[in-house]
Specification:
The chain has 417 residues and is of the alpha/beta class. It folds into two domains: 208 residues, P-loop containing nucleotide triphosphate hydrolases (Rossmann fold); 153 residues, P-loop containing nucleotide triphosphate hydrolases (Rossmann fold, 3-Layer(aba) Sandwich). 40% of the residues lie in helices and 15% in strands. It has 17 helices and 14 strands. Strands 3-4-2-5-6-1-7 form a seven-stranded parallel β-sheet, with helices on both faces. Strands 10-11-9-12-13-8-14 form a seven-stranded parallel β-sheet, with helices on both faces. β12, α15 and β13 form a beta-alpha-beta unit. The chain starts with 9 loop residues before the first helix and ends with a helix. About 5% of the residues have low confidence. The chain binds adenosine monophosphate. Adenosine monophosphate binds next to α3.
Length: 417
Amino acid sequence: MPFPSLGLAPALALAATDAGYLAPTAIQLAAVPAVLRGQDVLGLAQTGSGKTAAFSLPLLQRWAEAPRHRSRRAVHTLVLVPTRELAAQVGETLRILAQHLNERPKIVVLFGGVSVNPQMMALRGGADIVVATPGRLLDLLDHNALKIGDVAALVLDEADRLLDLGFAEELGRILALLPAQRQNLFFSATFVPAVEALAAQLLRDPLRIEVESTDATEPDIAQRAIEVDASRRTQLLRHLVQEQKWTRVLAFVATKHAAEIVADKLRKAGIEAEPFHGLLSQGKRTQVVADFKASRVQVVVATDLAARGIDIAQLPVVVNYDLPRSATDYVHRIGRTGRAGESGLAVSFIPAESEAHFRLIEKRQGLSVPRERIAGFEPVEVAVAPQAIESPANGGIKGKRPSKKDKLRAAAANKQP
Ligand code: AMP
């Protein structure tokens, strides 16, 4: 078994095998021995590289081997993450990897957007490992719900996103409360100057690990554009999921309402589908992500904003049920697939009224995606005159269908060179 050869205790190596990890990934090979030695680490790696286990496994071992005051639990390891979804995900990984330890650490996950009371309750009696988003952590520190003065190891996960999301000030306040003597692990997908400055401030003689990930340089994402009438997109999605045997699909829609409707229709057609949008409770959102990962849910129908926090490796298919508003959003969406060297597929549905918008996206991105038609789903609608379209991203809202006159006008316009 290769995991024990990294210096990991049998209980942790067993948990890694149980989790389905056959052999350590590149970042795990490099990081685990260094973290076990107590060295600082600077990891340039993307989600999908196995970085969560790369810090979780050795830090669990450091915790298990640390002398403890039995009377009082002090936070030993603090993991700071940018989003609540990532917090939940890291907490879950830690729990899974800790399952065979003789004594299991108390792991508490803290994030905003939900009531603070259950988190305060969870912190009663202390915690060994805390995974938190910076804002909520500060709230709880202000309420004296926990103390971080004895932290032995700090992890900044996705440091670039922490800074992107404007957490610099919060990070500064948190760092000021930590003891000077501690181990620091710093992970970031990009290394822009602000990230570099933060790393330089935090790390002492770090081991620098750079993981070449194929998706960072040349994503292996096949792009398809299928012409279909707006009114038949749900049927087409259902057809493709079933015919192509897609196991895990993230479908993007323009509105929360559309997310509900499309997921509902798919469910009625016998496909495990869930909506994912900002009006759902945090508990529900966490559940949907967990179910999606565990393959209990086959299709997640999401709005852009909500989907930003979903980090799922091995996402084979992304569908633009509604086109994104901008070319940048298009790249962001399709980048959800084809991670970590896996190949991915991004399918865009192009009703006649969205053709001009998709052409604009292609132009901005220097792309040319051939249009396809699927037998049995050939479009019959033609584009409406531009002034009759509310927004190209509205995705065929009812009542916006072209009238006969619109169709004749559009057909005439199409004939012109
Ligand atoms: P991360 O980069 O931490 O987001 O991990 C990406 C995915 O890789 C997660 O779904 C892990 O379960 C999985 N993973 C982590 N380590 C390994 C490994 N050694 N072998 C196979 N899969 C792994």
